[in-house]
Structures are given as C-alpha cells and as structure tokens.
Amino acid sequence: MHIVDRRLNPKAKSLGNRQRFIRRAKAEIREAVRDSLKKRKVSEVEGSEKVTIRSKSLREPSFSLGRSVGQRDFVLPGNKEYSVGDTVQKPQGGGGRGNQGSADGEGQDEFVFTLSKEEFLDLFFEDLKLPNLIKAKLKSLRSPEPMRAGYQSDGPPSKLNRVRTMRNSLARRIALRRPGMAEIKAMEDELAKAEAEAKSDPEKIEKLKAKLTRLRHMRRTVAYIDPLDLTYNRFERKPRPATQAVMFCLMDVSASMTEQLKDLAKRFFMLLHVFLTRHYREVDVVFIRHTTEAQEVEEEAFFRDTDTGGTVISSALDEMLKVVKARYPVEDWNIYAAQASDGHNFHDDMEKCLSLLDTEVLPLCQYFAYVEVSTERQNAGDESIVWLGYEGLAPKHRQFAVKRVTSPGDIYPVFHDLFSSTSAGK
Questions:
Q1: Cα 247 from Cα 119, distance rounded (Å)
Q2: Contact indicator for 119, 33 with CB cutoff of 8 Å
Q3: Which residues fall within 8 angstroms of residue 17, CB to CB, at 6 or more apart?
Q4: 110 vs 100, 105, 107, 149, CA distance in Å?
Q5: H-helix or E-strand containing 335?
Q6: Would you say 246 and 335 are in contact if contact means Cβ atoms under 8 Å apart?
Q7: Residues 6+ apart with CB under 8 A from 261
C-alpha cells in the first residue's frame, strides 16, 4: 500500500525541507535555544524565537576525489566566458566567501531564521519527560459528559421533570377555569335541594341543570395533565478534559526573601506551569504564601507583598492540605507542588514540617520540587536547616526533589535536572 500526502504546506512554505533542515542543524539550534533562555523572561517561553546558526554548520557532507593526484576535467554548466586553456585570475582580497565582509560590502553573514512557537517548545522540552503519570489518561482524549442544558417538550419518561410539569398543569387549569370536584358536588346538592322543594321554580331548576352540565363538560374536556404540560430535562454531552492537574506554589514571603529571590522563584514557577500545560488540558494554579502563618492569595500578592516575622513552613503545608481536601479530590486531579524558600525555618517547626511531608503531602503528589533560592553559592557545611531536613527525606520518596538556584541562568539546568527522564521516577 502506498500513501501519498497531498496536504498543502502551510503558508506556501516547504514544510518538509524546513523539518529536514531542523533535524540536520539540531545541535546548533539547541545551543542557540539554551542561550536565548538565559536572556528572556520565563513568561515569554511560549513565544517564537530567532535563532542564529554559523554558516559553517550549514554545509552538507559530500564525497570528492583527492586534489593532489591525477588529472581532472570539470564540466561547468552555463559557462559562456571561458574555454579550455584559459587562465582564471584569483579573486581579489575580500572577494572570497566567509564571515568577514569585503571592501565593497559583500560577504556572507551568519544564517538567521525564526523558530515557530511549537518548534521552540518542542526543542525546549525535547529530552524532558513528565514524571509519575500514574493516574493520567491519554492527553489527546476527551471524555464527553452529560450536562444540564435547560428543558424540552419531549423525551423519555426517565427525564420527565415532575415539578415543572405539575406547575404547567396547574397554570393551564386555572387559566381555563377547570372546575374541581368540590364545585361540581356543591352544584349537585343545590340542584337536588331545588328539585325537592314543592314550590320550586322550574326555570331555576333548568338553569341549575344547564350549569351543572357545563361544569361536568369542562371537567371532562380540560384534562388534569395535558401533553402540552409535559416538560423534560435536557442534557448535552460536552467534552471534559480527560486529564487535569493542579499546581501548588508555596513560598516564604518573610523579609529575608528579597525581590531578587522572589524573581528567581517566579521564573521557576512559571516554567513549571508551561511544562504542565504541555501534558494536561486543564491546569489550575494555587498560590500559598507564608511567614509564621499561611494563606492562599492571588498571584500579584504572592510575588509582590512582603511580610515581617519568622518562617513556619508547616503552616503552608497545612494550608495546601486544606485546599486539596476542599477543591481537588485526589481521584480526579493530578497534584504537583513547588516550594521556594531561602532555607530559613524555626528549628521547632522542622519536625512537624518533615512529618507532614512524609506522611500526608508527598503521598498525594505526583511530584514535589523544593527549590532553594540564594544569591551566592553554598559551601559544604553551610547548608540551611531546611536543605538538611529535605535532603534527608528525599531518598524515601522518588517524587521528591531538592535543588538550588542562585541566578536566572541556573533556572533551566535545575528544571532539566528535576524533570529529566533519568532523574524523575515513573
């Protein structure tokens, strides 16, 4: 069987040639992408990117005869200036091809082209793999789910809305003046009494009979429930994301967390969010800030507000567990958490903090990443109390990782180490 792809290339460009070029120059492109990540903001990761490649990298390999031996003849198509035996002058200085321009402004520059958004992200996440997708289904699938969409006048008996049906019936009977049994019984009693009287008026008896006949006719013709009264619940099957995740951002916002440290944390959080959106159709983000007390806040307050006081990390873990219990059941959501701190915490709180992580928080999480931010490299023996505690807990949980970040240039390598296929547990 032969399959011929007759789809048009997007925007009249040769998509096949472009992909072959990217595969051939991938090493150079990958290096250019990594260099660009150090300069751009994390919030701009999903945009396109201009990439510069050295012209030397564009040369294709070829086979040729050695130039040192033998007699060689060349056939040059389109030659109108030279014949056999003519002498060809050497090019003037600067006339050759290279990265330096000639005196008349001619030369060859480095090759620059633009990667699309999808191409850039594919290269960015090329060797990364989302860890521990135990509960996740295929990300490309959507499971339709019936959802209420008003009412309709027909449907199966199981979808009959009894309350609205009876309300319609009552309104119709009142509007058409359908008599009740009590009203007919009262009219029958009045007629019987009139007929029993010796001096009753025959004309009055006839009027009562006519009125009773009309009431009985109205009772028969105006039904208690008419087909017009029937109302059925209407449902539509709307696609629901088959996979969904919630990302908890935990951060110490005490006075020791400067704006520079918060900026480092923000870059990591946003990079993690972009990464999760590549694997889940729906990603919720919950921001929890803490000093000695923790609270869920909006993103602006999370990164901008600064509080005074000490640091109690267990308060943030308690708040996270409350939010999970209230809004994100474990059977429906994939839970991820990232904690950023400068390593400070009260000594009295470390035992409770580690106990919460070990017994309650980490068993709920698909992945938990602790990133310790600082402005200078730590020497051996200078580790913070949080680092020492978390580092001792990490070997017990494959979905728990601890890393340090000291500059924006460290964001990508740290992120790569946390979520690479070699370090992340399945």
A1: 25
A2: no
A3: none
A4: 10, 15, 10, 59
A5: strand 334-341
A6: yes
A7: 340, 342, 373, 374, 375
Secondary structure (3-state) at 354: helix
Residue type, 309: G
Average pLDDT, the chain: 75
Cα–Cα distance for residue pair 10/282, rounded to 1 Å:
28
Q: What is the pLDDT of residues 332-384, one digit of tens each?
A: 888 999 898 888 888 899 999 999 999 999 999 988 988 888 877 665 557 88
The percent helix, strand, coil of the chain (3-state, each to 5) is 40, 20, 40
Encoded tokens for 277: 């959106």
Task: Read off the pLDDT of residues 161-211 as tens digits, 9 standing for 90 and up.
Answer: 999 999 999 998 899 888 888 888 888 888 888 888 867 778 888 888 888
pLDDT(319) > 90: yes
The string of DSSP letters for 269-302 reads HHHHHHHHHTT-SEEEEEEEEESSSEEEE-HHHH
Strands 282-290 and 49-53: unpaired
